[in-house]
Amino acid sequence: PGKQNRGLGNRVDAGWEGGYPEIVKENKLFEHYYQELKIVPEGEWGQFMDALREPLPATLRITGYKSHAKEILHCLKNKYFKELEDLEVDGQKVEVPQPLSWYPEELAWHTNLSRKILRKSPQLEKFHQFLVSETESGNISRQEAVSMIPPLLLNVRPHHKILDMCAAPGSKTTQLIEMLHADMNVPFPEGFVIANDVDNKRCYLLVHQAKRLSSPCIMVVNHDASSIPRLQIDVDGRKEILFYDRILCDVPCSGDGTMRKNIDVWKKWTTLNSLQLHGLQLRIATRGAEQLAEGGRMVYSTCSLNPIEDEAVIASLLEKSEGALELADVSDELPGLKWMPGITQWKVMTKDGQWFTDWDTVPHSRHTQIRPTMFPPQDPEKLQAMHLERCLRILPHHQNTGGFFVAVLVKKSSMPWNKRQPKLQGKSAETRESTQLSPTGPAEGKPADPSKLESPSFTGTGDTEIAHAAEDLENNGNKKDGVCGPPPSKKMKLFGFKEDPFVFIPEDDPLFPPIEKFYALAPSFPRMNLLTRTTEGKKRQLYMVSKELRNVLLNNSEKMKVINTGIKVWCRNNSGEEFDCAFRLAQEGIYTLYPFINSRIITVSMEDVKILLTQENPFFRKLSSETYSQAKDLAKGSIVLKYEPDSANPDALQCPIVLCGWRGKASIRTFVPKNERLHYLRMMGLEVLGEKKKEGVILTNESAASTGQPENEVPEGQRAGEPNSPDAEEANSPDVAAGGDPAGVHPPQ
């Protein structure tokens, strides 16, 4: 910057937007490349380039997994969007957000408001606050429109076992979890999502995203997707390989479809990125295909427009699958979405602009950089049979989005190298089977070179034999990669690496009966699925997973690097054991647990909910007489507060609410994290104006109008943090002072 500022006098900021040099949105090589490949229809090139230079409109998705989604939609449409009508910001008329035509049930919206305008203009402050707060509590997601497509095309059902291979930062994973919980009345769907990412730090981003949905059916793991281990599960006492019904393979890519958002792509774009990524993309897709169940669906996607990362990967995968995989025709699955069919002819260009039309013309010196799998299949019949036109390429100017590529694959039979083949060269069955299982063995989706696929070392075995071979390997104590979990004790099985272990609570643990009795848990409560994160000392937090994930966890202790799984359902009361039950309910897991609880439940009215969420410790007498009569005979301790919507009163909130609370001496308090409190208050039509820190009272437009000053009536000895409060030590943390549940990604031990 120093150089450019000379001689500008006081125009120091000339050409500097917000302290950054204005990036010139030009790249001649980019234009030359894509014009030559003809990915844009005749006559649309100008529109295509213009669209790329425009900033991306903000899009948001209402997370559809709560009956709450409908309420949030109602709130957005009738309140926030209404307030945006006739608004002008900096002389520009604000367009009211519109639903994305192809996203089901109006659950996704786009708006011309850029992030900058949203943050800067006072008229939009309320709307911005709403977006931030609702995103925090997991009710909406800021997600790019095109990124919503792959999960929709996976066509998920609640019983599906799903693998998300390259999942961070997690917006697509969130969509998948929602689809598992399509029926809110089923606390434990049979399906699950295993979300993987190679980057340990990004895995924690995934954990954070998934946590917002409090699902017992998600597990975050940390592996290289191109060699993600084969997992086993127990099926009626037999160990079998876990094949997934649905796989999302959203691979790392050069990202040239994201230029509208990631401006530096303009400057950095070269064909080299694609040439370097192609091999990895093909290995990841191959590994996915191997783990897909027959009849299962795999979606391959990139945010790149480049055929080397798109059609070339799909064509090579189809070619080496020898008919085991087919491209599905999904042209009628997302009505309203505009896309271009996949292309069948393309060429390869080096970073200095040299073109090659087929592998035979590539000089030896280039063989490390350019591979045969990058070219279209030579045989016209083979090419036609692949139906590459069934791929979808989404161009930015068609619906004002990012650029994107999606292909949907269906598995018809085992991959050829996993099929049983005749014995070769007298190789004994044992060595063949162990080849199949070694994590770096060729059959693990890392063929060094596709042309060598026919070599005898690729002789695989049928899928079921593999499972038995796996069992033998385990029984011989033949540990792979020197990764050893601690020895399983008879009582409990441990796993996890540097992470805290996940320990299922033994059947006869004395910890459980008092909990069962206090909350009158239903006999159907799946207690086998309770786990903790500590082997020694007091168990502070109890978590739950679905029984299917329990099966996965128990059978793969040494193969899998689990970062996080399970939702918190109970935490220990700090102020000790004098209550009938040492564990209080945690808001995070209450929707999962609630169906099994038969006592300690208080039904509350909408007015009660408002008081409970805005005042820290309201006296019984502030609540309705119905609520009081239920509370007065309950022993002190953890309670459930349940609001049931009244369909006769359409103005009232139409979705059920379950809150965790505490019945004190003469008052009730709720344990609900702040953003969740604000969410419920908003859904009930209250605008949150601020908080009075001293009184722990949340001010809303109603309370401010009705009383000049909220009553300060916390009785002696009942300030947060004094002995009567269940969490004396926690109450001093700012999160809990507002009645929150201290939320860390990692439960403290």
From TrEMBL:
It comes from Colobus angolensis palliatus (Peters' Angolan colobus). This is tRNA (cytosine(34)-C(5))-methyltransferase. S-adenosyl-L-methionine binds at residues 166-172, 197, 224, 250. GO terms for biological process: tRNA methylation. It comes from the Eukaryota. Belongs to the class I-like SAM-binding methyltransferase superfamily. RsmB/NOP family. Residues 701-710 have a biased composition (Polar residues). Its EC number is 2.1.1.203. The active site is at 303 (nucleophile). GO terms for molecular function: tRNA (cytidine-5-)-methyltransferase activity; tRNA binding. One of its GO terms (cellular component) is nucleus. It is an enzyme of class 2 (transferase). Residues 48-412 form the SAM-dependent MTase RsmB/NOP-type domain. It is found in: Nucleus; Secreted, Extracellular exosome. Keywords: Methyltransferase, Nucleus, RNA-binding, S-adenosyl-L-methionine, Transferase, tRNA processing, tRNA-binding. The keyword RNA-binding applies. InterPro entries: MeTrfase_RsmB-F_NOP2_cat (IPR049560), MeTrfase_RsmB-F_NOP2_dom (IPR001678), Pre-PUA_NSUN2 (IPR057285), PUA_NSUN2 (IPR057286), RCMT (IPR023267), RCMT_NCL1 (IPR023270), SAM-dependent_MTases_sf (IPR029063). Residues 417-463, 701-749 are annotated as: Disordered. It catalyses: a cytidine in mRNA + S-adenosyl-L-methionine = a 5-methylcytidine in mRNA + S-adenosyl-L-homocysteine + H(+); cytidine(48) in tRNA + S-adenosyl-L-methionine = 5-methylcytidine(48) in tRNA + S-adenosyl-L-homocysteine + H(+); cytidine(50) in tRNA + S-adenosyl-L-methionine = 5-methylcytidine(50) in tRNA + S-adenosyl-L-homocysteine + H(+); cytidine(34) in tRNA precursor + S-adenosyl-L-methionine = 5-methylcytidine(34) in tRNA precursor + S-adenosyl-L-homocysteine + H(+).
